[in-house]
Amino acid sequence: MSEPIVFVLNGPNLNLLGKREPEIYGRETLSDIEAACRALARELGLAVDFRQSNCEGELVSWIQQARETASAIVINPAAYTHTSIAIMDALATCSFPVVEVHLSNIHRREPFRHHSYVSRVASAVIAGCGAHGYLLALRHIAHLLQKARG
Ligand code: DQA
Q: Which of 15, 20, 53, 140 lies 20 to 30 Å from 7 when distance is taken between CA atoms?
């Protein structure tokens, strides 16, 4: 049997990780995070499809694609977390685990970051663990998929 596919989707400006406000988002680049996700996924028996886009519509299309081919989504929607009904609606159509990840703890930052449209439809939310949050999300998904297999 082939490995379950997990889409790891990243929203706007996350391509700048490492250079962008490192005191908030850390010094690891998105490529570092991708490499760490791939290494852990291998251990967990998962296949990772890792993507980043600055465009809301592209993220929506990828979520629709995941519905057809993936077993779970890890998503850091970045600023779209706080604005995008389109991303929330797309995720609401997914009948598999969706884990929302934020590098920073959005709840101890500016008030406009406290509300997440995505949290309304996410199975789980991880915030404030830095890049490690992505790995925690993959472990949680592996746990859920294993439980579902029985
Ligand atoms: C973020 C938090 C968002 O508020 C912000 O717009 C981001 C990154 C995080 O990972 O902490 O771009 O999603």
A: 20
